[in-house]
Every structure is written in structure tokens, then in C-alpha cells.
Design a protein that fits this description.
Blueprint lengths: L4 E3 L2 E3 L9 E4 L2 E10 L2 E7 H7 L9 H9 L2 E3 L1 H4 L3 H11 L1
Parallel strand pairs: 5-6
Antiparallel strand pairs: 1-2, 1-3, 3-4, 4-5
């Protein structure tokens, strides 16, 4: 079964990513957000989600997990996720 991506009160399927602000995976919500960089607009999420969709061997735990991961440009710590875009961009540049 394909999971759902949810934005505010609107639920959409994976192929609609516009205005996305959270993923629902295994019945839990994970926040995400779009950021603007000098290279374009990208979707980021918390590393908490990354730890749930990828196992200790670096493998996806399901096809749904793979689809989610392919939409996300980068994972950041939860405390960084809602920082300013400058802080996020600095963090990403440090680790990419």
C-alpha cells in the first residue's frame, strides 16, 4: 500500500509534492520543508525519518521508504529543520 503525504488538511499521493509539509510513514508524522538554495528549491526532512526508512545496513525497509527517500534532498537534525534557511544551508554545505 502506498503511503500518503499530507499537507495541512489536504492529503495527496506521492506523485504530488507541491506544498508538502509532512510525511506519514508507519502511522507517524515526520515534518519536512522546502528550502531555497543557490542551486534551486529542495525538500528536506529530519534525520529521525531517515533512521526509520533506512536500516542499519543502509537498505530501505520497504518500497514506500525508498519512494520517500528519493523525494528528500537532505536530512537534518530536528532542531535544525525549522531554523532559518541560512542556518540550514550552512549545515548542508558543511556535510555535503
Amino acid at each position: 500500500m502506498f503511503g500518503l503525504l499530507q499537507r495541512s488538511r489536504r492529503v495527496v499521493f506521492f506523485h504530488h509534492i507541491i506544498m508538502l509539509d509532512k510525511f506519514i510513514f508507519q502511522s507517524k508524522e515526520y515534518q519536512c520543508r522546502k528550502i531555497n538554495t543557490e542551486y534551486g528549491e529542495f525538500l528536506i526532512s529530519s534525520d529521525e525519518l531517515e533512521f526509520k526508512i533506512i536500516d542499519d545496513r543502509g537498505k530501505y525497509i520497504s518500497e514506500e521508504a525508498k519512494l520517500i527517500d528519493e523525494m528528500i534532498f537532505f536530512y537534518v537534525p530536528t532542531d535544525i529543520l525549522f531554523s532559518s534557511e541560512t542556518v540550514i544551508n550552512d549545515y548542508i554545505e558543511k556535510y555535503v
